[in-house]
C-alpha cells in the first residue's frame, strides 16, 4: 500500500492529543517509537475501551509487560526480561505493524535527548516509508 501522507515526528504533547477522548479525532499509539493509527480498533482503544490507557503516548513497556499499570505506560524498556522483549517484538510485528498504518515516529526515536540524531534509527526497517518523501 502506498504511503500517501508523509510520516510525522511527534513530541509527547502532540501525541497526547490523540488519546481517544475526543469523538472524531484519530487515535494514536506509539510502540518502540513508531506511531500507529489505531482508530480502526476504536472498540479496544477509544474512550472507555479496555486498552485506552495505552493510547496518546509511547506505551512500549506496557505492551512488553502486557500491563496497563500507569508506571509501565512509558517508552522505557530498562530491565525488561528476555521473554518480555520477545513478546514486545512479536506484538509489534504481528499486531501493530500487521494491522495499523504508521503515521509517524516519536521525536525520542529519531533524536537523542540533546537533539542530536539517534544513529540507531533505521527508517528503512519500517513499511510504507519512503526516505525521499520524508527528509
Automatic annotation (TrEMBL):
GO terms for cellular component: endoplasmic reticulum; membrane. It is found in: Endoplasmic reticulum. GO terms for molecular function: metal ion binding. Keywords: Endoplasmic reticulum, Heme, Iron, Metal-binding. The keyword Endoplasmic reticulum applies. Belongs to the cytochrome b5 family. MAPR subfamily. This is NENF protein. The gene is Nenf.
Amino acid at each position: 500500500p502506498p504511503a500517501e501522507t508523509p510520516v510525522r515526528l511527534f513530541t509527547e504533547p502532540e501525541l497526547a492529543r490523540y488519546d481517544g477522548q475526543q469523538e472524531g479525532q484519530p487515535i494514536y499509539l506509539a510502540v518502540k517509537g513508531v506511531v500507529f493509527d489505531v482508530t480502526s480498533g476504536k472498540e479496544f482503544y477509544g474512550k472507555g475501551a479496555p486498552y485506552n490507557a495505552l493510547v496518546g503516548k509511547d506505551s512500549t513497556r506496557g505492551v512488553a509487560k502486557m500491563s496497563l499499570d500507569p508506571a509501565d505506560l512509558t517508552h522505557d524498556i530498562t530491565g525488561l526480561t528476555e521473554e518480555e522483549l520477545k513478546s514486545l517484538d512479536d506484538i509489534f510485528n504481528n499486531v501493530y505493524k500487521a494491522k495499523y498504518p504508521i503515521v509517524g515516529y516519536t521525536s525520542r526515536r529519531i533524536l537523542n535527548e540533546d537533539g542530536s540524531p539517534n544513529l540507531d534509527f533505521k527508517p528503512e526497517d519500517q513499511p510504507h516509508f519512503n526516505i525521499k518523501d520524508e527528509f
